[in-house]
Design goal:
Layout: H1 2-32, H2 39-59, E1 74-75, E2 85-89, E3 93-96, E4 99-103, H3 123-139, E5 146-153, H4 159-171, E6 173-176, E7 179-188, E8 191-192
Parallel strand pairs: 1-8, 2-5, 5-7
Antiparallel strand pairs: 2-3, 3-4, 6-7
Helix pairs in contact: 3-4
Amino acid sequence: MSTHNRKIDLIGVMKEIRRRKRKIRKAKDEASEIKFLNIVAMVDVLTILLIFLLKSVSISNQLAPTAANLNLPFSTTRTSPVEAVKVFITRDKIIVQDEPVAELNKGSVPDLELAQDDPLLIPDLQKALTNWIRHTAVATGGEENQFNLEILADKETPYHLLMQIFYTAGQAEVTVESHTFAFSKYRLLVMRGGG
């Protein structure tokens, strides 16, 4: 009888061990489940990420805008572009900030679109640049009085057309009271080469 009781005790002990193992396993599984999710912390993280992305997109000016009939020349420069008004010189027109201002005929501005007394001046371009200066000066409250001009010219653009653009941009200025607002820096934008 004592041997039989010992077998029953051994079987009971084995069952108890299995029951405890199941209980421990179940407790571990329940502990690994997420029962409470802190939404506030997640919203904070997502808000910070969103602000970071918006800030980096609004500041980033690394990609050159494109226009039809515009193939920029290549360069090995490593200088990053700055914020500037953009003048596109395509094969068939001059564009200021996405607004066409002059048509081109074989790389030249037709005589009818040039100033009669000054063959270097393109009046419609001067008007567009002057309006841009006036608008920006008002938007900045007159704090900024020197602006950047960025020229994106097709690689086949003739030199005399570039001279007309530079000359016309130099003539674009706005005077308010004793302050003169004008372009102070001119840049030619090129595509970065493989080197």
